[in-house]
Amino acid sequence: MDYTIEKMISEEELQVRIREVAKEIEKDYQGKDLICVGLLKGSIMFMADLLKSVELDLAMDFMKVSSYHGGTDSTGVVKILKDVDADLTGKDVLIIEDIIDTGLTLESVKKFLMTKQPKSLKVCSLLDKPSRRKVEMVGEYIGFEIPDEFVIGYGLDYDELYRNLPYIGKVVKK
Ligand code: IMP
Ligand code: MG
């Protein structure tokens, strides 16, 4: 391996902050018709821990998209590999994502989900790298803002590895 992994956010820090975000969501979605849409696969650990602490009646659904990065095309950047199963019409939809980087993935996903006429559509992301934005994208619920580093763990991968780590680490080239 030509890289090492350095711990950036510990398991304890993650769990404390995730509980705080869960309580914000719980307060804001009282009496609403909440459906949480996780983006596979990166959001799975976060979504599982987050929603265990949201004491509300809510539904869960999933989407899988593929991102095309580094292309010249700034439109149609994502391909929908799996659509949600539920009818989102009139629902309060909360997208659950692992990280907002350029913002291109969420821009496309939001545009796509808006065509399903939800009552509201917001974004909850565990991590945010605002310095990398190519389009304006603001998440309503953010766990941690991080610098421009490639991170892995807790759902995030490097070539499909490390999603099972209970903490967030950064990849450091040797
Ligand atoms: P965006 O479209 O550039 O905002 O990219 C979002 C997607 O890129 C995320 O859902 C991740 O799958 C991936 N991604 C961006 N930054 C990282 C990172 O630091 N580690 C792992 N995956 C990342
Ligand atoms: Mg992802």
From TrEMBL:
Cofactor annotation: Mg(2+)
Sequence ranges assigned to domain Phosphoribosyltransferase in this UniProt record: 16-158
Compartment(s) where it occurs, according to its Swiss-Prot or TrEMBL record: Cytoplasm
Signal peptide from the UniProt entry: none
GO molecular function, one term: glycosyltransferase activity
The keyword GTP-binding is assigned to this record: no
Pathway the protein contributes to: Purine metabolism; IMP biosynthesis via salvage pathway; IMP from hypoxanthine: step 1/1
Name of the top EC class for this enzyme: transferase
InterPro entries, alphabetized: HGPRT, Hxn_phspho_trans, PRTase-like, PRTase_dom
Keywords for this protein: Cytoplasm, Glycosyltransferase, Magnesium, Metal-binding, Nucleotide-binding, Purine salvage, Transferase
Enzyme Commission (EC) number: 2.4.2.8
Keyword RNA-binding recorded: no
Reactions that this protein is recorded to catalyse: IMP + diphosphate = hypoxanthine + 5-phospho-alpha-D-ribose 1-diphosphate; GMP + diphosphate = guanine + 5-phospho-alpha-D-ribose 1-diphosphate
One Pfam short name: Pribosyltran
Family the UniProt entry places it in: Belongs to the purine/pyrimidine phosphoribosyltransferase family.
Listed name of the protein: Hypoxanthine phosphoribosyltransferase
